[in-house]
């Protein structure tokens, strides 16, 4: 797109980037809004499990979300600040609140919240996030939603029941 058109419609390249990211991340915001109200009646540990499952489903459907965060996270820029403030911090805050509530009720270990958050988020994104091409592989296409459901099951089982037999 020629620079004069960017200036005319958006003012700056940054505002064009923000509009593009807002368009892409609108799905995440809608997903979070839809299911967040349904968490009210759940115990914190159950709400945490549902949140982790939703996160796996979203990343499996939209691995580019993770890739944008990784690319932008390499440098401290206005774009990273925008992503953090508008999308990543709200998700982290929700997870932190659920972790603290579950700890307060004795439903999960009283480990440092930041460590638990990083483990949980990392476990949900690593299977689908690193390669946007994964979702186009033959195995993914033939299984449909299978890989994301199976991965969510494994994440929740291992995080909440451990690896020990």
TrEMBL record:
Key words, A-Z: Membrane, Transmembrane, Transmembrane helix
Superkingdom to which the source organism belongs: Bacteria
InterPro entries: Tet_transcr_reg_TetR-rel_C_sf
Transmembrane segments: 113-134
Protein name (record): Transcriptional regulator, TetR family
Naturally occurring in which organism (per UniProt): Cupriavidus basilensis
Lineage, highest ranks first: Bacteria, Pseudomonadati, Pseudomonadota, Betaproteobacteria, Burkholderiales
């Amino acid at each position: 797109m020629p620079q004069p058109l960017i200036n005319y419609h958006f003012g700056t390249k940054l505002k064009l980037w923000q509009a593009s990211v807002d368009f892409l991340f609108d799905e995440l915001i809608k997903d979070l809004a839809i299911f967040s109200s349904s968490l009210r009646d759940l115990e914190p540990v159950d709400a945490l499990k549902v949140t982790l499952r939703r996160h796996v489903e979203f990343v499996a459907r939209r691995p580019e979300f993770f890739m944008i965060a990784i690319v932008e996270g390499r440098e401290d820029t206005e774009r990273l600040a925008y992503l953090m403030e508008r999308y990543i911090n709200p998700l982290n805050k929700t997870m932190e609140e659920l972790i603290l509530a579950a700890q307060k009720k004795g439903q999960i270990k009283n480990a440092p919240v930041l460590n638990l958050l990083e483990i949980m988020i990392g476990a949900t994104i690593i299977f689908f996030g690193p390669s946007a091409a994964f979702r186009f592989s033959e195995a993914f296409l033939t299984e449909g939603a299978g890989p994301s459901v199976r991965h969510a099951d494994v994440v929740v089982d291992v995080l909440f029941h451990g690896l020990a037999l």
